[in-house]
Amino acid sequence: MTTTGSSLLPARLFAEYLQCSTKGQLLWRSPQAESPHFTSFFYSNIKSGSIGRTEHALGRRLIGFDEMGDVDLSPAEQRFLVDCDTAYVDLSRIDLSHRTRTISKSPERDRFLPILFVADGPIQDWHKLLLCFSAIAISHRAQPMPSIGYVCHGYDRALSKIRTSSLVKGTIHALTEAQETLSSNADVPLNLKRYCSLCEYKVRCQGIAIEADNLSLMGTVGEKERRRLREKGITTVTQLSYGYRPRRKRRATAMTRSESAGINSKNDNKLRALAIKKQQIHVLGVPKVTQRQTPVYFDVEGLSGGHFYYLIGMRFKLGDDWKECSLWADTRQDECRIWRECLGQLVALENPQIVHFGSYETTFLKRMKERYPILLPRSEFVDELLSHSINLLSSIFGTIYFPTFTNSLKDIARFLGFRWTNGEASDLSPRTSSKNG
Fold first, then answer.
1. Which of 110, 235, 350, 373 is the 20 to 30 Å CA partner of 295?
2. Any idea what the CATH number is for the domain that residue 353 is in?
3. Domain range holding 200?
4. Based on the domain organization, do 378 and 319 belong to the same domain?
5. Are 278 and 301 in the same domain?
6. pLDDT of the residue at 435
7. What is the predicted pLDDT for the residue at 47?
8. What local confidence, expressed as pLDDT, does residue 290 receive?
9. What is the pLDDT of residue 50?
10. Does residue 18 sit in the same domain as residue 43?
11. According to the model, what pLDDT value does residue 5 have?
12. In a domain, 148, yes or no
């Protein structure tokens, strides 16, 4: 991505840094060839399929950053989009007093405007900083700094205009911090995130975090709570475990039904830390699960934001035999097909009951009901499924504490002795409705 000792910062490395400063620093120190992860392949396909539509919609041709000096600018009406992925800046030219008075006043007339392609989900803050990064890079090529840029995002490839002029100060500050961090010999303090599941350094960072008993191992401890704990001097899982105090026992006759139901409504991270330290399961109550005639173990995977679902997995019993099916989709048309096949399987069962882990599957069912109403065998079919569905995560949440760092299905299953055929298997991307609890 760059060469050691160089001051050139590519956009892709800056994108990694914005999401995880540890990964950004590691890539800066020791550049690697781009990983052939499925996410890269998927992103390339989405991007290549978006270029023609984007060029037509904006009336501009897409070029790479290094092509800016080679294009013919003689036609006065010639306008271009600069691919953010290909941009780079010289960190030696960045400082807090970076001049902004050359920002364009007539953005639509600018020869070059940056565009960022985002494969899925809503636009995040770091996407906007990356877009402004490219605007700054364009200004380093003796061009006015574009005051706007575009982001092509979501499965439907929506185009959003972003005003980069309001992001310059924040981007320069981020670049100045990046310059200090990347050039430092000191390692960035480790802070594990959900993003880590897709990172090539996850084994390295996980090992360091376990050795240090790093509090960020606990996925149920949010960043705000972690910050509050650090202020109290609590930085390890073991330290957190010492803060657990058992709840006072109350006589059953004095406890109303509503109070009993609410006892497991809150997660206690101190008890989870204690379970991890002792490597014991701690149980505060008995989960209540009502099973109907035909349970269907249900799992769905898709892009964040629910724009597109690419896998429906089901397991259920027919007679004395278990049946498993995996329905895959590559396009929105395929998504419609696998939903039709899924409905066909469910309708054929007697009193099907969806058993799932987390809220992702129920959100999926609601969206499919709205997205493809004509496919339903009857209008109330999905509502019936939802009314009898069992969310296993809700059943154990605040009641059963496994000695695992998160409430994810994979972590709990591994503790119980289950193994995946592919030990590195993971979701395509972090999802907004996470199963990490």
1. 373
2. 3.30.420
3. 194-282
4. yes
5. no
6. 39
7. 84
8. 78
9. 87
10. yes
11. 52
12. yes
For residues 180 and 277, give the distance between their C-alpha atoms in angstroms, rounded to a whole number. Answer: 37
> Splitting the chain (437 residues) into consecutive groups of 10 residues, what average pLDDT does each group show?
67 92 89 56 77 91 91 78 94 64 64 89 90 94 89 84 92 92 89 80 90 91 89 93 80 47 68 94 83 90 81 92 93 91 94 94 95 93 94 90 91 88 55 38
What does pTM read for this prediction?
A: 0.77
* Residue 164 falls inside a structural domain: yes
Rounded to whole angstroms, how far apart are CA atoms 210 and 190? 11
* Residue among 143, 397, 147 nearest 262 (CA): 397
CB 68 within 8 A of CB 138: yes
Burial 188-207 (b: 16+ CB within 10 A, else e): bebbbbeebbbbeebeebbe
> For residues 148 and 163, is the Cβ–Cβ distance under 8 A?
yes
Do residues 368 and 276 share a domain? no
Q: Are 346 and 352 in contact (CB under 8 A)?
A: yes
